[in-house]
Amino acid sequence: MLQQDNLVIIRVWHSGLHGGAGVGHVSIQIPRYQDLYISLWPKDRSPRIQAAFRPTPHAFMTYEQDLTLEGRPPESEIRLYSLSAGAIKNAYDRKRATLAGWQLCQGIYFSSPEGGGESCASLAYFLLTHGGIYDLTASSATARFSSSSLGSSATPDELALVLKAAKKQEEKRHPETKNFPLQPATATDEENEGESIQSRSARCGMTCHLL
């Protein structure tokens, strides 16, 4: 039986090629760890070619900052209960301690001498693989995800496809998750009586495609 407090939320702002704008964006939220929100951006957001192939200074943003920077709610919001939230948190802590910077292109053809650079999508891919995403994805989706990510770069649009396939698999195996509340209460919520990311976005009237 899956637990509601094992919720991992992945938000995807699609690129301009798939109904969104720009190159897209990906973030991960884990409510059980003090509403941990993982959203990687370059500090300097002006387009520069070197940022595609070499790490540049990075920053982590909040959900509200993501909404401002993207100028809209995410096109896709995928809520998964089958991943290991703890493994994702541990992988994030290790990665953050050694992260060299933001780098758009990742993969075997775009390795940099400095090493350690990530884009929002490649970081999400790294964390989701540690969290067990391959245990959920169907074989065809897994092959597409693995091939594209290793050969070039994980992209927000590719991640959205794989995550939707993972959600379908989860609901097939665990139909009870369809009735889980959108935002489970956590110890932090009860102690601090603060607004969660989800409640703030709902209060602002922001909606997105929930899966």
Fold and architecture overview:
- Residues 108-114, 146-152 and 185-210 have low confidence and may be disordered.
- 39% of the residues lie in helices and 15% in strands.
- The strands form 3 sheets. It has a 5-stranded mixed sheet with strand order 3-2-1-6-9. A two-stranded antiparallel sheet has the order 4-5. Strands 7-8 form a two-stranded parallel ribbon.
- It is built from 8 helices and 9 strands.
- Helix 3 packs across helix 4 and helix 5 runs antiparallel to helix 6.
- The chain has one domain.
- The chain has helices spanning 50-53, 63-70, 85-98, 120-131, 139-151, 156-173, 187-192, 197-203, and strands spanning 8-13, 25-30, 36-38, 40-42, 58-60, 76-80, 101-102, 117-118, 209-210.
- With 211 residues, the chain is α/β, with parallel strands linked by helices.
- It is globular, with a radius of gyration of 17 Å.
Largest sheet: 5 strands, mixed
Strand order of the largest sheet: 3-2-1-6-9
Distance between the termini: 20 Å
* Shape by Cα distribution: globular
* Rg measurement, Å: 17 Å
Assess the beta-strand content as a share of residues: 15-25%
Q: What is the total domain count?
A: 1
Number of alpha- plus pi-helical segments:
8
Question: How would you classify the helix and strand content by structural class?
Answer: alpha/beta
What would the average pLDDT be, to the nearest integer? Answer: 77
Number of strands: 9
Order of helices and strands: EEEEHEHEHEEHHHHHE
- Percent helix among the residues? 25-40%
Query: Low-confidence runs (pLDDT<50, min 5 residues)?
Result: 108-114, 146-152, 185-210
